[in-house]
């Protein structure tokens, strides 16, 4: 931007600065994208393609239309030649919050879009998972500004980025059994070829894709990236064409499709079978939560520590959208696969450790927003969860309740007593420590930060459910 | 009346001034073909990943390098 925006001008989304030809802003809860004249040419071309119409219908591209009457919008710098309006996604999420299968499906969508675009003389400027968002279990591509005319002889501009941000994280998890989430959260640019190459053993060289996409690419980068030679010009002169890119895309698609991450179990994946409930207690708990859910229609429910997603599914019947949050990737990977099979578009599974929720990242710490800035819940379910924070992670009970209260949402929270097998497991090596963990401490904190509190103790006396209503002034 | 006319005149001058200023700043923006650096090494590797169609491109790439060496050497001689 060369001129300063006056207050009447739109506030651009802090994450939309990378491509100078388009910027995104939110106005009256709607999403708009400004285009320069160059980007407008690309849009006009895109709108006339067959794949755009088809993939929009299938929900793989975000619904977009050109704004014809700009008088209702804030004043725009004359460098913007046109404005598009996008359909908003219910909740923004990032690749470091997606379980393996979600990143894999996002990668396949990126490849399919690039291939479809090439068939009609277009390509994409980049290949980053941040351009893909979710409507429940359906991935949808949101960066319409990424489509541009393909110029003869050009290589695929997004290949390296595709490797760094999709392929290498998937390799890391499928081949090395290492979670990619901390890596992607630690570096928004993804994993470099040289970094992944250093982790690969000789045995890994034989795994599909490692020799070419990792080792050779690392070698090629160290040999040529510092050279002044105009590789683009060389390739154009040598007759590089879209058929080579299509072959690479086809090979990558097969490769990604076959990647699997299949650990047999994680700490919490057997919870459904092992949890310490008696049969009738499960029903009572279910009824208690249902009685809260049926009080009204909820717009956004957070089910924290969702595990198998039983209560996320129950919530989805009474809410517009549900976040199924858990720190355990395996349970969410399974939940996502089930939801995808069912075609569910109202539950979004995200890998989030609430003791360390996703922070703001990137330029100014605002490019990728922190979890609680992306949509406030009006109901939080914390069922069989608080002992993981209070005992497992030493978060003081009162601070946990205060954190929940900050959202201004109603809260259903379950207290699990010291006789529960999971609580015993958490406490087994913690002898001699004093932890404030009791129904009395919980009730005190709830009464301090919430409005009316109702409760029900399950038959065994070891589990108590609370429904705490938000204070009208937001607590 | 006179004051209003003067105000309008000033507004016109202001608009003109800002238009010139904007044009000046826009002209300062550096035009770039692509905002993302695809990486020279990664671009070259794509030739190898292109399947059978690669063979002709690789051959031509080498051939062009050989001939470019030749033409580069001869260019200064011509200019002397």
How would you briefly describe this protein structure?
The complex is a heterodimer of chains A (475) and B (80). With 475 residues, chain A is α/β, with parallel strands linked by helices.
CATH topology of the largest domain in chain A: Rossmann fold
What is the total tally of β strands of chain A?
15
CATH top level class name of the largest domain in chain A: Alpha Beta
Strand portion of chain A, in percent? 15-25%
Structural class of chain B: mainly alpha
Main structural class of chain A: alpha/beta
* Strand residue percentage of chain B: under 5%
* Number of alpha- plus pi-helical segments of chain B: 3
Helix content of chain A: 25-40%
Overall body shape of chain A: globular
Distance between the termini of chain A: 40 Å
Mean pLDDT of chain A: 93
Q: Number of folding domains of chain B? A: 2
Q: Helix amount of chain B, in percent?
A: over 70%
Distance between the termini of chain B: 74 Å
Assign an overall shape of chain B. elongated
Count of discrete alpha- or pi-helical segments spanning 4 or more residues of chain A: 18
Instruction: Using the 3D structure, state the CATH architecture of the largest domain in chain A.
Output: 3-Layer(aba) Sandwich
Described by strand count, sense and barrel closure, the largest sheet of chain B is:
none
CATH level 4 superfamily of the largest domain in chain A: Vaccinia Virus protein VP39
On the 0-100 scale, what is the average pLDDT of chain B?
A: 70
């Amino acid at each position: 931007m060369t001129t300063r925006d006056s207050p009447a001008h739109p506030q651009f989304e802090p994450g939309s600065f990378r491509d100078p030809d388009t910027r995104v802003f939110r106005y009256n809860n709607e999403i708009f994208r400004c285009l320069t004249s160059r980007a407008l040419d690309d849009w006009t071309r895109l709108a006339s393609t067959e794949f755009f119409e088809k993939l929009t219908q299938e929900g793989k591209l975000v619904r977009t239309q050109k704004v014809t009457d700009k008088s209702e919008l804030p004043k725009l710098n004359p460098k913007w030649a046109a404005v598009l309006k996008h359909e908003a996604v219910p909740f923004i999420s990032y690749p470091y919050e997606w379980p393996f299968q979600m990143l894999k499906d996002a990668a396949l969508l990126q490849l399919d879009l690039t291939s479809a675009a090439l068939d009609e003389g277009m390509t994409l400027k980049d290949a980053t998972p941040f351009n893909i968002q979710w409507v429940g279990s359906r991935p949808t591509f949101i960066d319409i500004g990424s489509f541009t005319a393909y110029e003869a002889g050009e290589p695929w501009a997004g290949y390296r980025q595709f490797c760094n941000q999709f392929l290498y994280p998937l390799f890391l998890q499928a081949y090395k059994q290492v979670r990619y989430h901390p890596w992607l959260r630690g570096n928004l640019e993804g994993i470099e070829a040289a970094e992944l190459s250093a982790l690969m053993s000789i045995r890994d060289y034989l795994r599909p894709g490692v020799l070419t996409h990792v080792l050779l690419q690392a070698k090629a980068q160290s040999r040529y990236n510092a050279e002044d030679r105009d590789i683009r010009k060389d390739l154009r002169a040598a007759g590089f064409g879209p058929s080579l890119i299509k072959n690479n895309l086809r090979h990558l698609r097969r490769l990604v499709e076959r990647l699997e991450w299949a650990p047999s179990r994680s700490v919490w994946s057997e919870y459904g079978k092992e949890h310490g409930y008696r049969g009738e207690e499960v029903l009572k708990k279910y009824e208690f939560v249902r009685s809260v859910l049926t009080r009204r229609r909820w717009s956004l429910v957070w089910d924290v520590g969702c595990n198998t997603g039983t209560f996320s599914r129950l919530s989805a019947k009474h809410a517009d959208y549900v976040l199924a949050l858990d720190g355990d990737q395996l349970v969410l990977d399974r939940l996502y696969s089930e939801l995808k099979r069912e075609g569910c578009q109202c539950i979004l599974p995200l890998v989030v450790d609430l003791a360390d929720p996703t922070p703001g990242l990137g330029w100014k710490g605002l490019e990728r927003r922190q979890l609680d800035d992306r949509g406030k819940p009006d109901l939080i379910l914390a069922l069989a969860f608080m002992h993981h924070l209070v005992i497992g992670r030493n978060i003081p009970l009162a601070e946990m309740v205060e954190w929940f209260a900050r959202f201004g949402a109603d809260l259903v929270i379950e207290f699990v007593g010291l006789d529960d097998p999971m609580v015993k497991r958490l406490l087994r090596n913690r002898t001699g420590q004093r932890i404030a963990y009791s129904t009395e401490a919980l009730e005190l904190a709830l009464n301090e930060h919430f409005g009316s509190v109702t409760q029900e103790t399950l038959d065994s006396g070891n589990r108590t459910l609370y429904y705490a209503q938000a204070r009208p002034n937001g607590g | 009346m006179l004051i209003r006319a003067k105000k309008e005149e000033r507004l016109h001058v202001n608009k003109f001034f800002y238009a010139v200023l904007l044009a000046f700043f826009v002209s300062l923006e550096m035009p770039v073909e692509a905002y993302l650096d695809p990486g020279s090494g990664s671009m070259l590797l794509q030739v190898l990943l292109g399947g059978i169609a690669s063979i002709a491109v690789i051959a031509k790439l080498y051939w062009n390098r050989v001939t470019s060496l030749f033409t580069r050497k001869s260019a200064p001689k011509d200019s002397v």
